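User: For my dataset I need records formatted as: sequence, then structure tokens, nothing else. Please produce one.
Assistant:
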Amino acid sequence: MFYRLLPVVLLGFASSVFAADNAADNYPESLLYNKPVKVADNVYSAIGATQPYTYANSGHNNNLTFVIGEKSVLVVNGSSSYLLAKALHDEIKKITSKPVSHLIDENGQLHAVLGNNYWKEQGAKIIAHVDTEKEVNAHGVEELARMKAFNKEKGDKTALVPFDQTFDKEMTIDLGGITAKLMYFGPSHSSGDISVYIPERKVLIAGDIAFHQRMMPIFEETSTIAWLKTWKDFTAFAKDKIIIPGHGVPTDFATVDKTTRGYLEFLHAEVRKLIKSGGTLADTNKIDQSAYRHLHTYKELSATNAMRVFSELEME
């Protein structure tokens, strides 16, 4: 099985991508942070920096994945900008002349949706979960302004465009000889988070339901209780698949389970102990999260994550 070989195959790639917490652009001739890597036959992913958005990384801090069928290409994530989407398409065209027929946004965050207008110009059908459409309608304008503020001229030509189709639970797309199954497992990291499964390759483009090299951000609206419930269904499906997470190199289920479910359960246990002992929100900085210090964005996110879990669990 490919996923058993994955740590060996990608060892050198992973060490270069994640050295010094992504201090350097690994593909300076392109706006992409990394050149796309082949994950399985017909499946490629351009692995983004596991750090916050910056001008230096051009907003490429998530994974931009594409699947090549006999008829056409499907792209997962529109990217942070028009020009970054074009940079990804330039790489696709080095591999195949087939048209991009579908663009799937894994959620409503700016690095998933703001490049959509480039793909619409190419004739792609833009698809997302119903909750992603609500998220973009509510916050898209401010996210576009946020991207243009850090990305400057790299954000040129980027504009919001409507989705062509939304779905609720599942949807299947035929690319010719290979299919993509769009799946909503339930609430997780952010509104409308979905995964895309390629059954012919046993590849699960998990998206932001699963983390391993980057510490997860827990948003104010995130329900970690619901995320852990969703994880049970995700586990039943994902445990024997090749996993392409939303951030970080492709891996296996055991790895993302340890750093997603494991981290959430750790925070729940520590926060519940704190609440039971009469602790307050300010006391969350006493929680020892050093076991997760190796994760990128630990400094930026660990303290906030603990506070948000406290706010959620004190209402139980």
